[in-house]
Amino acid sequence: MNIEILTPDEDIFKGEVDIATFPGKDGSFGVMNNHAPMIAALKAGDIVVKDTNGEQTFAVKGGVVEVLKNKVIVLAE
Q: Which of 6, 51, 70, 75 is positioned for an S-S bond with 1, CB 3.0–4.6 A?
């Protein structure tokens, strides 16, 4: 699936990943390929993305994530 992590200042990450985990307001959750459409609020914590090359972690202060048709867009602080 394709993911974009954006802040008001810069694009932090864009690329294909196998799984992404997010610090949701109601608890952590993961998203994989073919996930159902959703919109969720994020709290402060780490977004972790994993692909065949390994794992990357991005710290956020909060934000919103949208999942739709194997595309994930994160608007983060």
A: 70
